């Protein structure tokens, strides 16, 4: 099969190669991939920025979510059969969706939403699970509460705005002039033009913030919260709590405690809570997302689509920060 891979960490171009079709385990299915999507985690993995949390063997096929058709099932698979159209986010130890085939655990996939194409469906798993787990599992958002979503026109942001509105939550978001109309069309109640306005001075008494940018934006986000509020970040630095919960060991716990000290102090200063989100695959939650999509409450937002052979161009475009919504790779 054809796949796009890296041979070492660093900013070298993806290499197209012929590799064997993977074998499947007893609880896995073999998926003929029709489409995959590009996410910031792809170039972070390529650059070695998550080596502290994830270890991979080289060569490594990149890609973290997909949509396709089941072509074989393991002996213990009970929820899927050959011919099923599915979508999913494989577990972190088993990535590789920039390819024509992949083996994936049945717990990590769900039936593809019936009203979506494969390209549309492939755009949803990673960003959908990220927003879902942030809002439901960590923030426990309720109708009537207020959330700030950074970079609302991005991949996570376009999904998160729609999910929050489906939950009855008031949504503020940051965007440029180019993204303002898009986020408003998705339901954002208040749009902060980050080029001309300071969100930390404009917003107050928010229940939660979803941070997708990290850095100074993350540090300033605590100022918009009411006491007891929470900042959930997918781009910040993991803290000691995250290290303990994920059993990373005493050395990594110490290193992350030191690295995240500034964030921890800022959270304490504002009587707020900080959580780093390392999203987990979940076929069960994808089924909940499918129900929202099929009910018309969430619509995929796709900026551009590339061929598999042009995966490097897709990665470059995503890394440029110009994409509004998702970047998709059409495999078949």
UniProtKB/TrEMBL annotation:
**SUPFAM superfamilies reported for this sequence:** GroES-like, NAD(P)-binding Rossmann-fold domains
Q: Report any Pfam family annotated for this entry.
A: ADH_N
Q: Can you give the residue ranges of the Enoyl reductase (ER) domain? A: 10-329
- SMART domains, sorted: PKS_ER
Question: Per its UniProt record, what Gene3D superfamilies does this chain match?
Answer: Medium-chain alcohol dehydrogenases, catalytic domain, NAD(P)-binding Rossmann-like Domain
**Gene Ontology MF term list:** oxidoreductase activity; zinc ion binding
What keywords appear on the UniProt entry?
A: Oxidoreductase
Entry protein name? NADP-dependent oxidoreductase
User: Oxidoreductase among the record's keywords?
Assistant: yes
| Superkingdom of this protein's organism | Bacteria
């Amino acid at each position: 099969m054809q796949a796009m891979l890296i041979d070492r960490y660093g900013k070298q171009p993806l290499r197209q190669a012929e590799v064997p079709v993977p074998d499947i385990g007893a609880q896995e299915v073999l998926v003929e991939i029709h489409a995959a999507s590009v996410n910031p985690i792809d170039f972070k993995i390529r650059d070695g920025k998550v080596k502290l949390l994830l270890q991979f063997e080289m060569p490594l096929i990149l890609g973290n979510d997909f949509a396709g058709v089941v072509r074989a099932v393991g002996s213990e698979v009970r929820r899927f059969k050959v011919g099923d159209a599915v979508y999913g986010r494989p577990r972190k130890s088993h990535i590789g969706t920039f390819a024509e085939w992949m083996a994936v655990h049945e717990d990590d996939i769900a039936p593809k939403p019936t009203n979506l194409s494969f390209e549309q469906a492939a755009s949803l798993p990673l960003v959908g699970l990220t927003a879902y787990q942030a809002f439901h599992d960590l923030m426990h958002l309720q109708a009537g509460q207020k959330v700030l979503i950074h970079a609302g026109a991005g991949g996570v942001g376009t999904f998160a705005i729609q999910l929050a509105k489906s939950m009855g939550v008031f949504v503020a978001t940051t965007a440029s002039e180019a993204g303002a109309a898009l986020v408003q069309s998705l339901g954002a109640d208040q749009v902060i033009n980050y080029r001309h306005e300071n969100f930390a001075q404009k917003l107050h008494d928010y229940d939660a913030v979803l941070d997708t940018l990290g850095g100074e934006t993350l540090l300033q986000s605590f100022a918009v919260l009411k006491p007891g509020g929470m900042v959930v970040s997918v781009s910040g630095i993991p803290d000691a709590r995250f290290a303990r919960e994920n059993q990373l060991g005493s050395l990594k716990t110490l290193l992350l405690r030191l690295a995240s000290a500034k964030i921890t102090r800022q959270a304490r200063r504002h009587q707020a809570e900080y959580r780093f989100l390392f999203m987990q695959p979940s076929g069960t939650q994808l089924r909940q997302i499918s129900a929202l999509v099929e009910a018309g409450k969430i619509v995929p937002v796709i900026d551009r689509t590339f061929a598999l052979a042009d995966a490097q161009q897709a990665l470059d475009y995503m890394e440029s920060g110009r994409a509004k919504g998702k970047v998709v790779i059409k495999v078949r």
